[in-house]
Amino acid sequence: MTDVVFPPSLWADTAPPRAAAPSLEGTVETDVAVIGGGFTGLSAAIEVARNGGSVTVLEGKAVGWGASGRNNGQVIPILTSAEPAVWIKRYGAAGERMVQLIGNSASILFDLVREFDMKAEAEQTGWFQPAHSPGRVKLCQTRVDTWQRHGFPAEFKTAEETREILGSDFWYGGMLNPTGGHINPLALARAMAKTAEELNAKIYENSAVTSYERVGAQWIIRTATGIVKARALILATNAYTGELVPSLAPRLAKSIIPVLSWQMATQPLGDNLRRTILPGRQAVSDTRGDLRFFRYDARNRLITGGAVMGSHDVVNRVRAKAARSLGEAFPELGTPEMTHVWSGYIGMNWDRFPRIHRLGTDGWVWIGCNGRGVAFGTAMGRELARAATGTNENDLALPVTEPRPFPIHSIARRVAPTYLAWLKRKDLSEPKQ
């Protein structure tokens, strides 16, 4: 098979190597077929295989090539704007179960890492959301109260406590969830693939799926060189659903807008700076729409990122913006040099709620990570695997809806980056109480 070239990134430089799996050739029969070798697909494969089922994963490039291997690596146990009360109002009991799944999502990931001793630079040091304005402090307190009511260990931190956590007085208070943390995402994807294979899951790489259909009691999934026949199907391509094979699932692909998310890494910090800046090594992403986020990797680099409008000289512009943001919050850094800059798609939708859809009998998909796919995608993989292997839907966090494609998707995709301007403007105003 042709070797898959990974886009340059810190993770491509530091993740343990993985021997490429073969491409699919001929016809394979399996109980559950999974399309996509990212966190969702691999988590689903592990869940099916560990319970004795046969499962086959088809990955169009290589394990972790898409969003799962390119993100910041923050393991965040809440979603961007999909608050618990809205889940419950929309979906009732299924929404209640979804709230529980979201709240447990970081623990699901870290427990999986520990159970199978995955080498993924995993640090369950907590996730902290500091308030970027005095008015957002109330938002943080409300979120803490909400998650505590649902049984999760969220903690409110005052401005003084926030200063101690971050080593900076740039923020005003915040919410800490000790179940969160961070990982090397490409290392995690490769470790999950290794675990799945050791449990007898079959993985085929460089095997882009060209079509799937329900024929009688089976799903027929086709690649350029092979066919998989399966009783159940899980589509786990998320933001990349329309990227490799645009005709694969056009209605699903048009229900999200793939938006480039830029990540970057500083030089490793020296010991003196490490002890004063973010001494507890939490993952941090604040309350801005134009998000400021950062955390350490295993080599004490600060992993951060940002977004800019337009495509002109985007790498240098986003590099400079992220360096300025770090320097504003931590003057002792000066303007830090970024040694690695990379990007990948996140799947955005109109209200930033992930969606679960039924593809047909024993066919499932979720889509719309909205920048929170690491923990949630891993948890959803397990949930979809349980659905595909017979768990009653009333016992699962699966509020099923119909896809809602964006009207004039191609235009929506082109103008989506201008959303950043609205977010910046919104960040300057205080929320209504």
UniProtKB/TrEMBL annotation:
Keywords: Oxidoreductase. The keyword Zinc-finger does not apply. It comes from Pseudosulfitobacter pseudonitzschiae. SUPFAM superfamilies: FAD/NAD(P)-binding domain. The keyword 4Fe-4S does not apply. One of its GO terms (cellular component) is cytoplasm. PANTHER family: FAD DEPENDENT OXIDOREDUCTASE DOMAIN-CONTAINING PROTEIN, SARCOSINE DEHYDROGENASE-RELATED. Residues 31-386 form the FAD dependent oxidoreductase domain. This is Oxidoreductase. One of its GO terms (molecular function) is oxidoreductase activity. Signal peptide: none annotated.
